[in-house]
Amino acid sequence: MEKSTISSFSQKSKIDDLDLKREIELKKRTFAGGNNIVITIPRELTETLEKRGRTLEQILSATVYEGKVIQKRDKINITASVMSELFEDVKEKIIQHMMELLRQHPEVNMIVMVGGFSESEFIKKAVYKAFPGKTVIIPQDARLAVVKGAVMYGHDNSVIISRSMPFTYGVSVAVPFDDIKHPESKKTLRNGSYKCENNFKVFIRAGESVIPGKTTVQHVCNASTVSSANVEIYCAKSKFPVYVDEPGSTCIGSIQLQLNDTRSSDLHTIRITMSFGSTELSVQAKAEGTNNAVMAKFNFLH
Predict the structure, then answer these.
(1) Which InterPro entries match (predicted)?
(2) Looking at residues 128-142, what average pLDDT do you find?
(3) Are 104 and 71 members of one domain?
(4) Which residues constitute the domain of residue 153?
(5) What is the C-alpha separation between 33 and 136, in angstroms, rounded?
(6) Of 132, 159, 186, which residue sits at a domain end?
(7) Cross-strand pairs, 194
(8) What's the whole-model pTM score?
(9) Cα angle vertex 261, ends 255, 267, to 5°?
């Protein structure tokens, strides 16, 4: 069926379109793998097709689903094999993703399923079969669990006592160049000695848990020049990034600390502190032994 036909139907008959989507959503949840599915087709959709010189029966007969998806008056009957085929790819991806998570955390023995798709009988069976040794919990009204959690969190963010970091967070630093460890392309002469630029100094790794408002991580490094310190903050998909310019690493911002005492030729020592809040990352750069500091905040949802 052409997208333009569906679009025309959706615009002209919003109520019928909503009813059709609701029925499809309901049938998706109740499909268990062995039962055929019957869906009522709104009259307006049938008429829209006929105005364009085609019928639903003609469209179905020209597809690979001929004989498997059958129209009878204002209803279509979808065989169990077709429904299973439609679910198969997404089911496999869900199971594979869960297996990967459990490989990383073998100590986990309980699975909680939330969201509308958790009410699908087909998906439930697949999860039970794939993880027979795990306790699977599906709360009542699983489709509303995420929304309820968001509302509770909006009223009181202390309901979430810890969170798993989605990315690795750190800063870009220069370290003494090592001929064995570092590529020649990153060799730079700075302040009389050779450095390796763009190293990813990790503060916290993806998958590690933090307590909002309480978890802080500190590291010290030298300022880039005697007059200022520029701190670039990065996140990476990898748990073990090496350089900030490798694929999967992204600069989410920077802060610059102006150094007041520039009489000495020695580089200032800078203490960098990352504080992990509920939805924000706070970064402070402070010159050691002084009250000179700057701070910036970054959104975890970037």
Answers:
(1) ATPase_NBD (IPR043129)
(2) 91
(3) no
(4) 86-159
(5) 19
(6) 159
(7) 189
(8) 0.62
(9) 70
